[in-house]
Please model this.
Amino acid sequence: MWSRDQTRQISRRALSLALSLALFACTGNSQPVTLASARQVVSKYCVTCHSPSGAAADFDWSDERSLMLHRRNIAAKVSRNSMPPSGLPQPDAEERRILLCWAASNDAACPR
Ligand code: HEC
Model:
């Protein structure tokens, strides 16, 4: 049987391993994901609709502040493949990684 201390130590190690894996997945080739690169992907695939004159004008991703505020929602849609709507050009694997990484760990692992 493991003592309580050992169990704690193991869960701390597991947590730090999980965090470093997340960081690794996030930084990839060690380039931080900048807001600018996220915006490039968004401009390419999203702002035709997500801008003041588009079909989803209420969610204006051409506006930097709005994009930042909605980043978790954006990541959720992108990771479920529910945005962009099917039938439209979809971001490739690297572009998706950029969006998800920027959104998920904007504050810590991937400095802007
Ligand atoms: C063909 C037009 C179109 C494109 C392209 C498009 N969207 Fe959308 N999106 C919509 C519409 C329409 C809605 C629903 C807006 C509403 O409820 O008013 C929506 C809703 C969303 C929502 C949910 C907003 C909410 O909280 O209800 C998110 C997040 C989103 N889109 C992200 C994206 C991202 C990220 C991209 C690009 C990778 C993208 N969309 C591309 C049309 C589009």
Remarks:
- The radius of gyration is 17 Å.
- Residues 4-27 form the longest helix (24 residues).
- Residues 45-46, 48-50, 55-56, 58-59, 70, 73-74, 77-78, 83-85, 88, 91 surround heme C (CB under 6 Å).
